[in-house]
Design brief:
Number of strands: 4
Shape: globular
Structural class: mainly alpha
Radius of gyration: 15 Å
Mean pLDDT: 90
Largest sheet: 2 strands, parallel
Number of domains: 1
Number of helices: 7
Length: 161
């Protein structure tokens, strides 16, 4: 979880590969309308995100029911969003990729072919609710090397289980 540009997709793919489980990039689940809204420079609101979160929760539920597990990259910026995802099944935990605004903006501005413009980064920080102490998961510095982050996540998962 984290703001755009924090490395969710990169770290998520590496972590899924390491754990030998399926990976889902939450960006791929956004509706065409949500993508168009963001591309036009308008942040999503809770109503826009509701069907998206339901789809993500369905994926989590299936991954848990099938016993395969999985890794998902998604912003999950608000506690309520994470609560909805946790409600999809037991064992859901979060890896919060914490990143400063300047670095996030620079990373997003440097991406090609992505629907999220850099001017929306501030809107993500405006709603961001970092992981709470009572939430299962780990907060890491997203400026670190993705392989180091994955190593930290794997160690933390061993402690959570």
């Amino acid at each position: 979880m984290g703001v755009s540009g924090s490395g969710k997709s990169t770290v998520g793919r590496l972590l899924a590969r390491r754990l030998k489980v399926p990976f889902l990039d939450g960006d791929d689940v956004h509706s065409p309308a949500n993508r168009a809204k963001m591309a036009a420079g308008h942040p999503l609101d809770d109503e826009d995100r509701r069907p998206w979160l339901l789809s993500l929760a369905d994926w989590i539920h299936e991954a848990i029911d099938d016993g395969r597990g999985g890794v998902m990259a998604c912003s999950a910026l608000k506690y309520a969003y994470r609560d909805a995802l946790r409600g999809a099944g037991a064992g859901v935990c979060f890896l919060y990729l914490a990143l400063d605004r300047v670095t996030a903006g620079r990373r997003v501005a440097g991406r090609a072919d992505h629907f999220m413009p850099a001017r929306l980064v501030d809107s993500q920080y405006a709603v961001l609710e970092p992981l709470r102490p009572d939430e299962p998961g780990l907060t890491v510095d997203a400026a670190a090397d993705p392989r180091v982050i994955v190593d930290e996540a794997v160690r933390a998962l061993g402690e959570i289980d």
